[in-house]
Structure formats: C-alpha cells, structure tokens
Amino acid sequence: MAISPAESQQDQPHEASGSAGASSGASPRKVALVGLPNTGKTQVFNNLTGEYGLVANYPGTTIDIRRSLVTIKAQRYEIIDTPGLRSLYIHSEEEVAVRDMIFFEKPDIIVQCIDASQYKQSLLLTAELLELGIPMVLVLNAMDDMSRHGLGVDAAQLEKILAVPVAGSVALHGLGQEDLTAVIGKAKKGRRDVTYGVKIENSLRELALALPFDLEFKHKIATLLLQNDPFLEKFLENKFGTEKLAPARAVLNAVRHQVKGNLRQIISDRRNQWVDTVAAAVLKKQEGVRQGLSFHLTQASRQPLLGIPIFLFLMAVVYLAVVYVSGALDKFINFIAVTPVTRFITSFSLPAFWNDLLIGNHGILTLGLFNAICTVLPILSVFFFIFGCFEDSGYITNFTVLTKNVFEKIGIPGNAITSLVLGFGCKTMATLSTRSLTIRKEQYIAVFLIAFAIPCSAQLGISMAILARVGLSAFVIVFAALVVCEVGAGLFLNTIIKGKEASWFIQVIPPLRFPSLRAVSRKTYHRILDFLKEALPIFLLSAVGLFIFEKTGLLAMTKQAMTPMIVNWMGLPKDIIDVFLLALARREAAAGLILKMVDSGALTYVQSILAVVVTTISFPCVANVIAIGREMGWKTAVIMTALIFVSSFLLVGGLRWILVLFLGH
Amino acid sequence: MRNVEQDEHIEQLWYMKEQNVAAMDFLKKAMEHAFDPKIIEGLVEIGWVDMAADGLTVRLTEAGEARARQLIRAHRLAERLIADVLGGGDLEAIACEFEHIVSPELVNGICTLLGHPKECPHGMPIPEGDCCKLAHKSALSLIIPLTDLKPGESARIAYINCRNDQQIHKLEGLCIRPGVIVKLHQDFPTYVIECEGASIALDKGVVANISVWKNPRGNDLAGADKVPGKEAHPGALKKFVDAFFSRKTG
After folding, report:
1. Among A100, A147, A535, B168, which residue is least crowded by beta carbons within 10 Å?
2. What is the pLDDT of residues A609-651, one digit of tens each?
3. Does B166 reach chain A within 8 Å, measured CB to CB?
4. What is the predicted pLDDT for the residue at A638?
C-alpha cells in the first residue's frame, strides 16, 4: 500500500524526472549513500533525485537498495540509497546487502550521512569506510537537532582532519542540498590514520597477499577476516570457491596463533581511540543546556504511568479523526461527484445491461470507481496522514519500550514489535521489515502475526468507519476479538515452533520530533498516489469480474454452495460472498462494500462485527503473500496462507456463537 | 606442594588446548629454555598429563585441567586487577608470579571485587569459579553490573562482561564500551540508558553484562569532578589490600 519496495528498481536505475539535459556520454559515476540507520539517507536521496523513497523516524525504514540517475553539473551520477549500516562487520541480512553492494559494485563515491544524535557512533563507521580507499563525502544531517541539544560540530576542522569534504544539512526540510551538490564532485579518498600496531599490520599485509588476486578491497576484507566476521567467509566461498581460499585460510590460522589476545578487541580498541581523538577535536558541547519538553515527553511515553494514557489518547485521536473527518470528506465527495454522475447516467435511460454495468450493484462505477474514490479514499487519506505523523515523530520505538515485556509474555519477541506496528500501515512492507530479525523462529512468528489479525491501514480505517456506524461497542468487541486471536496465535506458535535461542533486545531510540507537516503531506500524497496506481485498476477489474460472475449465474451458484459455511456457521447473509470475492482481489474494495451494506441496513449488529473480523483475518492480500514467499520461502508462504484461512473461518464461527450467547441475537 | 616449574608446563598445555594444538614440538618451542622433559614425565606419573606412545602429542588429563584452570584463572584475574585497579604495569611479570602464591579463596575474592570479569585485558577467557556461578557481590566490590544502578545514576563502564563477540560488537557500535560514561534513564518496563548522546533500550540480560565502576561517592558522574577509573580509587584500594592481605596471613 505504501511505497512498495518491490518497485524500487533494483536492477536498472532509471532517469529521475527533471534531470538536466547535458549528458557527459561516459557511464554514470556511482554514488552510494551509506550511514547508520535513521540518519536521513533516503531523505537526501529524495532531495537529490526528486524521487520519493519512504522516509520515517525509526531505524529500518529503508529495506531495499534503491537507485536513480541524476545529472549534477553536467556529470551523470547513479545515486544508490541503502538500508542502514552500523559497521562493515555484519550483524543482519539487511546489512549484508549493503556490504555486498559495496564490494561487488565498487561505487565511485561514498556519501556518508551522519546524524547529530549518533555522532560518535557514525564516526566508527567512517573509520571503516575510510579504509576502503573510496573517495568520500560526509553529510552532517539533522543539524537543527544538534543545536537543540547544545552540540556543535566544527565542520571545517573535521574536513581538515579527515581530508574529505563535509556538507551540513537538515535534509528533512530540504536544507543543505546545494552544499551537497557542490561538493559531491570533489569527493576525496580521505586520510586513514587508524593503525593497528606493527604486528597486526604485518599480518594484514600477509593475509591480503594470500587472498585471491582479483579480489577488491583486500585490506578491508583481511581486517574483517581477522575479526571473525560470520558472513564474510560465506561471501568469499561463493565468489571464489574453497580451493582459491586455502592459502588465505592458512595465513589466517597462523596469525591467530601468533598474535596474543583477542584480535577483534585490539582492532576495535584502536578504532575507538581514533574516534575519540577526532571527536574531541571537532565536537563542541555547550554546558548548561537544560532538558527540554521533548525529553520529558519521551521519557513519559515509555513508562506505564503516563505512557499508557498517552497511548490511549493517541488511539482516540486516530479513531475520531478517521470517523469524523473522513465522514465529512465522504459526504463532500458524494455531493460533488457521485450523485451528479449517477443522475447523469440515469438520465440517459440506458438498456438494463449497460445500466447495471455502470451503476448497478456490481457496476464499474459503483463498485469500482466510486468505491475507490468516494468511500475508500477519504478514509485512507486521513489514516495515512495520521500514521505518517506517528512514523515521523519517533513514537514507535518508545511504544516498543513501553510494551515489550507484555508482548514477550505472549510470545512476541521485543525486536518484532516495530514490524507489527508497521503492519498497521502496510502489511507487505511490515513483512519485508522482519528481515532485521536474525532468529528464524522470531521472524516466523512475526511474519505470521502480521499476516493474521493485524488490519492494515485500509482495513483499519474503513473498519473504524463501519463500526462507528454500528456503535462504539462494536469497535471494542472487534478490537478485543483481534487481540485475542493474535495473542492466541502468538502463544500457539511460540510453543509449537522449536528453537530456544532468543535474540537480545538492543534498540536505539530515535529522537522524538514534531512531525514536519511538509514531509508527512508529501508522504501521504505518495501513498495515495500509489494506492490509485495499484488499487484502482484492480477495483475496476474486480467490479467487472463480479459483474460477469453475476450475469453468468456463477455467483448464485457459489452462494448456494457456500451457504452452509457462510449462513449456518458464520451467520452472515449470502450476499457477503460478494465481499469475500472482492477481498481476494483487494481488501479495500471489500471493506468499501461492507460499509455500503451497513449503510443500507443489510447487516445486523452482530453481522457487521463478524464481517469486519473475517475480512481482517482471513484474506492476506496477494502482495503480502508474495512478501512472505520472498522472506521465508514459498513452502512457508503456502502453509501460512492455508493456516490463516482455516483458522480464521473457525474462529469467526466461534465468535459468532459467543456473541449470540451473550447478546442473544 | 606448589611446584613452579610444573605449573609453568601445565599452563602452557592449557594455552595449547585453547588453540587446539597438541604437538610436543609446539610445547618445546613455546617454552624454549624452560622446557624440561623430566617434568613432563613427572606430570604423567601424577596423572595430570597424557602423552602419546610416540612422544609426539601431549595433553592435559581432567585432573591436570582442573589444576591448570586454577592457575589460568588466577593469572588472568591478576592481569585484570593490575590493568584496571592498580593502574597498569608489566602485566606479564607480575601476573606470572601472582598465580603461584595465591589461594583459591583469595582468587575468588579478587573475582568478586572485580565483578566476575569474563575476559582478561588481552581478551582471553577467564575460567569461571564458584563465586561467578552464584554472582557473589560484596560491599567491597569496585565493579558492579549496571543493573545495580538506580535510574538517574551514571557511571563509567569498566568492561562488557560477555563472551558473545557479536553482542560486544553491536554494543561497541553504539559506543557502549570500557571508559565511556553511561547514564541509566529507566529500568522499568525496559532498561533505557544514555550513551554518547543516544538513548538506547536494552534487555535486562544485556544490561547485566555491562560492568561499571562503583563510585565511592555515589553514582552521579554528571557532577563529579574526579571520575573513578585507573587512578582514583585510593580508598577502595586500601580497603581491599587490608581486607585480603590480612585474610591471607591471618
């Protein structure tokens, strides 16, 4: 639903709109945007190329590598945006992709984004990048945050010490772009004065010589091998095969015997010393800066006393906004567009067939266009806007801190909470974000739970609207039912799946920022655009499909066949089949149809609840299933989808009987 | 009976075990002039060492390993003590003497004092003792786990007490490493610490691995002008010296 990473043109860069005409004729120079997570790389990418990659204030926003061509000062560049990287010594799959890109593609220039709140941590990466010997540029991003914390960086001094150009910026507000474009052509190799002591340096030279001849970045790879990087040996094996690596292995073992002590520690100690020296020379700290409101608010939001009320307050805001603002938008669009158009078409007195096709129950316009634009779009826009504010504020990680213990008791690992929250935006993206989970069992549980009972933005927004029509109590019941399903699934999977190893929870909490309206609006705009591009054709096609299904009598047959399950077990009217069929194609379309059925009184109180629950749980959208296939393998995707279908129909039936028992409908 | 030469051979065999080597040649080369084949024979007789019939491989028996473990533990704890508390110095020379004269109780005392470190200053593993398993604490402990701090307190990190390289590396990437001052923001519902300008949320298990210097004047380094570290522990050091050397002689 949101900016789909699948469309991020992994293999072919494409021309960014608005690039100047002059082409140098030579192949474009590759510029890799690298840096710690959440440092503004994608924002810089957006500013440079005029494209839009998803930007938000939590680590792990960018999942895939994204490319674009741009011309700066008559020179063509291929700008490459990457997921966050903490070190060339690898921790997780996402980071491997970045390092592989650097090693395989040998970018001509590396632009490292450095964020104010993780300044020294970024310098650790700088130390490693300088060792690659690739010309570099540093971008000091979020300079406004720095001054707010009473920190300052002497950019000129930094430039002098490292011998690479340094540009300042506040990428979120588009500031500093001229600095960067001015400086990008002047990227230089930089001064690498981190040394590891005579013994280790000699060993590195020896090891570098023993590595296969055609390997790039020998010095760097030698260093990583000495540090026992787990992913690197696999990388080298894949590239060169065991035989060619034999001499290097021999040298490696010899070195490990010779050098007393822990190599990894010695290397990192030296690097840390270098970082301390550079930071001391360049970082200016003002004394006596008091902690501002944002600090106290952040603290409050992650402790139960104030954190829970804050969370409930935010939920209430979302609910009210979706229901009332979108309700108003809906009426407005109805007034301007739907009613006039319908009247216009009716005035033609078309033969029944065409009338039906256009504005009948399964008409292209009714079920297709109007459903999308008038019913679904207003709600979606409001929801996107609010969710965008959430993402940009930095609240998500604080929420994780607040709720981690509770989630872990029900089988959801702390590291997975962010992915689950993202599921409320778009489940496909959330599934891809589980790549950061290093333990297979945890990733499995996270992926299943995301696909299961988490309503994505479309589902959530519209469900809120539906249930508001029926009554607040309905909303509460649905919410409770979904929570019970998720908790049950979490506990069940946790017991069933083997694997005792648990990951450690170590997460950087991003600074709490007031969301930039400009940035959120831009994000909402692109999300709406994506929705129209992806979903609208499917809305129209599925409306046509349903129309044909109906006219040929197949629909009636299907309804007859499924009556036992639908009517007897779940207690829903036969016409709900229309909803299910739409849900297979596009769940917003289904949700839009439910809304209409509620409005026309076709569903009772209990039935509305059941309809919302079943469409939320039972129908993983196609994109989501594909994402599961990509992350976990196709066998798993099929098993999960089957499990979801079966268990959800059972659960919904069970829910119906519970409601009947208690409410007596 | 403490036999220094025997001890030296046993220690060397332990080093070889750590590197997965069992060749007699390696032992000879490593020990140079100190090597004495008669000592090896003596050790075989006591049952602390196994030697192959052809005399080419040699390794410790279980009993021998137990003895070696004590020696290595004392040696490496001594190195930690000298490096961290006594301000550094010639680690090898001092530690080498130390391990032959201390009793296991004294060694455990030092271990408790230092907060049960898992690695020597060179990064080699320190074998565990009984005190480690029970995570004994003492009022005299100079180094305590970060979990002992209260929210709002800050302290300087002594070491990361964890044998998992990946975890140490991840923490280092966040600048959580020896010498750095960290502040504990909250311990409930999840630990949050501040380090070098960034707020970081951590599991209790990870926080327990971060060993920090206990500040004799209370753990608020924000206002302290003298920070505990290699130099500034005269009071605690004297207490330690008195307490343990009096136990040894008494």
Report:
1. A147
2. 888 888 888 888 888 888 899 888 999 999 999 999 888 888 8
3. yes
4. 92
Q: Among residues A154, A184, A214, which one ends one of the domains?
A: A184
Q: Does residue A651 fall inside a structural domain?
A: yes
Please write the tens of the pLDDT for every residue from A452-481.
988 888 788 778 878 888 888 888 888 888
CB–CB contact A118 B172 (8 Å): no
Residue B237, chain A, CB below 8 Å: the answer is: no
Domain ranges of chain B: 4-60, 69-142+233-250, 143-231
Domain extent at residue A320: 304-663
Judged by a CB distance cut-off of 8 A, whether residue B103 touches chain A is no
Is A634 a domain residue? yes
CB < 8 Å to B167, chain A: 504, 506
Residues contacting residue B76 through CB under 8 Å, at least 6 positions apart: B95, B120, B124, B126
CA distance A330 to chain B (A): 42
Amino acid type, A165 = P
B204 touching A (Cβ < 8 Å): no
Query: How many Å apart are CA A157 and CA A152, to the nearest integer?
Result: 12
Nearest-CB residue to A261 (from B122, B167, B200):
B122
Contact A304 B189 (CB under 8 A): yes
pLDDT of residue A127 exceeding 60: yes
Asked whether the predicted pLDDT for residue A7 surpasses 80, the reply is: no
> Does domain B69-142+233-250 fall into CATH 1.10.10.10?
yes
Q: What is the ipTM of this complex?
A: 0.81
Q: How close is the nearest chain A Cα to the Cα of B19, in Å?
A: 7
CATH code, A281: 1.10.287.1770
- Is the pLDDT at A406 greater than 50? The verdict is yes
Last residue of a domain, one of A236, A255, A285: A285
Sequential DSSP letters for chain B: ---HHHHHHHHHHHHHHHTT--BHHHHHHHHGGG--HHHHHHHHHHTSEEE-TTSSBEEE-HHHHHHHHHHHHHHHHHHHIIIIIS----HHHHHHHHHHH--HHHHHHHHHHTT--SB-TTSPBPPP-HHHHTT---TT-SEEEGGGSPTT-EEEEEEE----HHHHHHHHHTT-STT-EEEEEE-SSSEEEEETTEEEEE-HHHHHTEEEEPPTT-S-TTT-SS--SSS--HHHHHHHHHHHHHHHH-
Q: Which of B190, B193, B202 would you mutate first to test chain A, the one with the most A CBs within 10 A?
A: B190
For domain B143-231, give the CATH number. 2.30.30.90
Nearest to B189 among A149, A262, A402 (CB): A402
The total of structural domains in chain A comes to 3
Find the closest chain A residue to B192 by CA distance: A401
Q: Within this chain, do residues A97 and A53 fall inside the same structural domain, yes or no?
A: yes
| Chain A CA closest to residue B187 | A303
A216 and A273 co-located in one domain? yes
- Give the number of beta-carbon pairs within 8 Å between A and B: 116
A399 and A262, same domain (yes or no): no
The answer on A575 and A547 residing in a single domain is yes
Residue A6 confidence (pLDDT) above 60 = no
Chain B residues near residue A255 by CB distance under 8 angstroms: none
Q: Check A120 against B190: CB less than 8 A apart.
A: no
The verdict on a CB contact (< 8 Å) between A118 and B197 is: yes
Please tell me whether residues A253 and A315 are part of one structural domain: no
